[in-house]
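Researcher: Here's a chain I'd like modeled. Treat it as a single chain, no partners, no ligands.
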Amino acid sequence: MRAGFPDFRLGSVLATSFTATRTERQGDSVERIPTPQRLVDWLALNGLAVDSCTDTQLARARELREAIHTAATAAATRAALPAAAVQVINDSSSGGRATAILTAERKRRWQLTSVEDALGVIAADAIDIITGERDGKLALCDSPTCRAAFFDTSQSRTRKWCDMNTCGNRQKKARFNANQRNNTRA
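Model: Modeled as a single isolated chain. Structure tokens:
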């Protein structure tokens, strides 16, 4: 990662990994794509390499990210999907011209010419998970400072945290420390 920026939280689901470019939404929010180049870096790490990004494209990407988070949160809580978020997701999905390419290794590679193409792929992935087209369940992180929407593909569909290495460990450590304090007072 580039020096001076927080690390990316990479997951196996593109759309929710994208929403994780802004974390600690209920606490001191952390922006993980503060510059156009950081968006280019994130896209490349997720198989959506583009040559460049403008400030306007970064603003569009953040708008899509927030729309996906809003819609995924509504879906996870079984609330109505906000019309504005749905519109942003649909506009991004239809605005891209990405082409899926099959490689000799039986992998999919995206052929992109712009950030808008990459955002179209991300929006389409969000549509798949919000509509239930993929096997899994949308959930919200149990961390009171995070509350990130994540896509639970565990067998039992009972994950509590968006990421065990961050939110999960933090919550378990806090619970352990509270227990230790209670035990020393007793």
